[in-house]
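cache lookup: miss for this entity combination. No prior model stored, computing from scratch. Input as submitted by user K.M.:
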Amino acid sequence: MVEVEAAGLIAIGAGIAVGLTGLGAGIGEQSIGAAAIGAMAEDPKFFGKGLLMTVIPESIVIFGLVVALILLFVF
Amino acid sequence: MCGLFKTPAYAYITARVRARKRKLIPKETYPKLLNMQLPEIIRFIEESEYKKDVDELSAKFKSIDLLEHALSRSLGASYRKLMDISRGEVNYLITEYMRRWDVWNIKTILRGKYYGALEEEILNCVVSAGELHYPELELMAKKENIEEVISSLEHTPYYPILTKYEGGMLNKIEDELDRLSYTRLLDAVGTSPGEKLFLKFIQTEIDVKNLKILFRLKKAGVERDVVQNTLITGGLELKESDLTRLSGLSFSELVHSLDSYSYWRAISDVVSDQMTTLMDVDTKLDAHLMNYASQISHYYPLSILPVLDYILSKKIEVDNLRVIARGKELKLADEIIRSHLVM
């Protein structure tokens, strides 16, 4: 019974890790994406830089994913 | 939470205006333009961001007139674009700031009708940058007389003021229209940190406008009551009591009483009792305003301030190009033209 509860908590922790980092990345990306689109509308040359800047907050989701994987497979 | 949804709207518009500002002519280019002859200046402008406007108007106008109209058209189109690409709060603030162009256009059409100018002559002077679109301005310019123009504005905020017109000189309603645009703008500004600075800028702009009025009217020896009725209240440093005091002074007294205000630093080297032209004061005050807008635009990057900076920089670029072209046409010395450039 105790083992089952721990597994459940680990799964919830992994979910929170991915979920919250995804939310954070989304909040960060909304402004960066809007600015990138704005810059691209004026000058299409900004496409590469704009895309790169927009995906930078995605790295935080990778950290969340790593934490989730550690939780799921190490503990 | 609300700010979370406002931020992308500001991020989009500020990225666009910053990209647009990058395309403006850098101030290092003005000395090069001063070394060119008029045909070279026209060619330079034809090959710049004004190309589309020059091409479209080239069949109708030639030489310096073509340049003037292309610059006005580009200015109007740039400002209208800002209103088209923004939404929500930022769009509201831009629309209110651009109301001054509605006032400018209404004043131009009324003056045109007053002096019996032709429809084409009137339309050549309007800048379609406000809420009133070009087709509406065209319809107004087609009207027979001032009364018809006023009745065509029935559904605008300007109508209550315009109905006060009882014939004769237009200056009274013109002053009231100016005041209305500033009153509405001051009421529109919110309480976020960026908007507080925007409010400070508007108040500074009112001060600068009042200073220009004071210099002009006092130099012309206009009576105190007339000066006082022309001034706009709501400034930052020049409060109502200051305006009352300054409007009662002579030109010489006015010059000596301005050193207690921060604007004195910007104009002190061109102001004196014996000054013959007020152009230098205007140029210095405009430069002060432009530098202030540029400076505060970096304080809150996701606010109305970078948009304001662009609006002002674009207007100054157009004015500078006009000064250079007209100066060259009149064969003025480079030094005189340079002194009238806002940099």
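stored under new cache key. Chain B has a mean pLDDT of 89.
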